[in-house]
Amino acid sequence: MDVVTRTEIAEYPLISRGKVRDIYAIDDDRLLVVTTDRMSAFDVVMNVPIPHKGVVLNKITIFWMRRFEDIVPNHLLDTEVANFPEPLHKYASQLEGRAVIVKRAQPLPIECIVRGHITGSGWKDYQKTGAVCGIPLPAGLLESAKLETPLFTPSTKADLGQHDENISLDKAIELAGADRAEQAQSIALALFSRGREHAESKGLIIADTKFEFGMVGNTLTLIDEVLTPDSSRFWPMDGYTPGQSQPSFDKQYLRDYLSTLDWNKEAPAPPLPEEIVTQTRAKYIEAYERLTGETLGL
């Protein structure tokens, strides 16, 4: 399976090249989404890829979307390259395992973050204010502590190279409309609860995650990536100890390494040692295999 950092598909117009995904317009109703092996951290794309990372993200998203179909519709139309439009078949080696055909959706202007444990920016916020994104929490919580009730903490959607900003539910309602924002909140919390229950049965904790929704006609639809190592923090249940940071199966390993460097977290990204690339790749693959019970054979 190829390592893919950039696609050039001449037959269809490229409408977006994001931090990780290349998106092409198939027609007025369908998109081709290709999840590359580009790696971003702190909203900066690294100079080297994480081999086959895109395959992990794509396949784990498909796994969850199918598992959540009774909660919310998703945008998937086809996941097998053999069934894609004929002009795409010559790109099979680049698309296999990492591309899907999806319904066009109008994305909501917010990202739906759910926090089940207090960590990352939420922990920093709590230390300063006693709250997370303006939501007061009990005093004396430890780093990585499980929250009695998961928190919905929406954020803005930043342009490439910019940083998302946490916002209040009132601001999310202002941006997305009351009905859509409140529906997105309810569904995001339901997805998190279902996902966390499954992950715990596989020995993993989902500390927090980000969901994205869009409108397909008048239907709120789950889009983009779902409970992946890029959008979530996965911790092993074995050895989980509140009061400290936790080992992880996600991009936190890379973030931790980058935080040891004299780097201002702006482009250009620093070079990545081979060991960091190899270990990050292994963590992504292990997260997929533990959650799904399947092997990738990579």
Task: Describe the 3D structure.
38% of the residues are buried. The protein has 7 helices and 16 strands. Helix 1 runs parallel beside helix 7 (274-292) and helix 4 (169-176) crosses helix 5. The mean pLDDT is 95. The protein has 2 domains: 1-104, Phosphorylase Kinase, domain 1; 107-236, D-amino Acid Aminotransferase, Chain A, domain 1 (2-Layer Sandwich), CATH 3.30.470. Strands 8, 9, 12, 13, 14, 15 and 16 form a 7-stranded antiparallel β-sheet that branches. Strands 1-2-3-7-6 form a 5-stranded antiparallel β-sheet. It starts with 13 loop residues before the first strand and ends in a 6-residue tail after the last helix. It is globular, with a radius of gyration of 19 Å. With 298 residues, the protein is an alpha+beta fold. The longest helix has 24 residues, at 178-201. Keywords: ATP-binding, Ligase, Nucleotide-binding, Purine biosynthesis. Pathway: Purine metabolism; IMP biosynthesis via de novo pathway; 5-amino-1-(5-phospho-D-ribosyl)imidazole-4-carboxamide from 5-amino-1-(5-phospho-D-ribosyl)imidazole-4-carboxylate: step 1/2. One of its GO terms (biological process) is 'de novo' IMP biosynthetic process.
